[in-house]
Amino acid sequence: MVGTADGRVRWGILATGGIAAAFAADLVDLPDAEIVAVASRTEESAGAFAERFGIPRAYGRWDALAEDPDVDVVYVATPHSAHRAAAGMCLEAGRNVLCEKAFTLNTREAEELVALAQERGAFLMEAMWMYCNPLVRRLKALVDDGAIGEVRSVQADFGLAGPFPPSHRLRDPALGGGALLDLGVYPVSFAHLLLGEPSDIAARAVLSEEGVDLQTGALLSWESGALASVHCSLNGGTPVTAAVTGSLGRIEVPQGFFYPDRFVLHRDGQDPEVFRANPADGPRNSLKHEAAEVMRALRAGETESPLVPLEGSLAVMRTLDAIRDRIGVRYPGEDAAPRLASV
Fold first, then answer.
1. pLDDT score, position 308
2. Is 140 considered catalytic here?
3. Residue 1 has pLDDT above 80, yes or no
4. Among 80, 84, 95, 101, which one carries the catalytic annotation?
5. Contact (CB, 8 A) for 151 and 244
6. Which is deepest, 85, 97, 289, 340, by most CB within 10 Å?
7. Distance between CA 187 and CA 101 in Å, rounded?
């Protein structure tokens, strides 16, 4: 069991941006969670974050947090271009890790993190909070139980209207910029959740002058005959909806599909059924469910979560690599071609 004698799990937070702040705020809803340290690249940023959330220790260096023996698990909230370095540093130091998505820049880096975690016997999980959302879990259970028959197609999109200037991190190749890794990871992960890893991938994109994707569409296919259409954009606001159609019906998820407040099940020949989020689960955009899953797994002595398994995160990265290969996006420092999904 990980945690203090009273059962509390002690968190460290690495990075101090918006997602780190949202995560810290949601940990308040978990009475057995305690944030004991925060780290940033500067003492000023770490200190301000610590003061904001009442965190006792603030470090101006990542390695100081990684080496803090009072930290049970580190939440890595850096841009994904730094996930390999930050999460790897924490795993090397013996810390358990929850790492933001996209898991890494590419499959090679993801495989390195997984191998390192296994070598150290440490817990590692991608922070794909959608998979931990109670209503999304209910949707998956219905599909798995055959509520709509055999899955024929999946559709999901995530687009922001922008415009984002060239100086923005989303346009910066050095930070893994582009729509795919920042936004497209959600539609791709939704398709993986319901169908697993695709057997074939086609994709097209509109690239910026910097060489990152401003808009990407991909068609994923499976040996079963199922297809998934996924789309992401930095230059057009989309509905951010999802749908899954089967041989006996369909499920429609309205705006904000990866943190839904409801979805509608349409069974052939029956009235639609509306499934709503339980108000007791908290705000629909709460990150507490993934934090609770990490703490449950740590107490159970598990090194990965069945809700967000490491092989699933690797499979998503293989798909993202394949899409990038199709659209011609490479990032600085990638010393080898992205490892592609088997097609």
1. 98
2. no
3. no
4. 101
5. yes
6. 97
7. 13
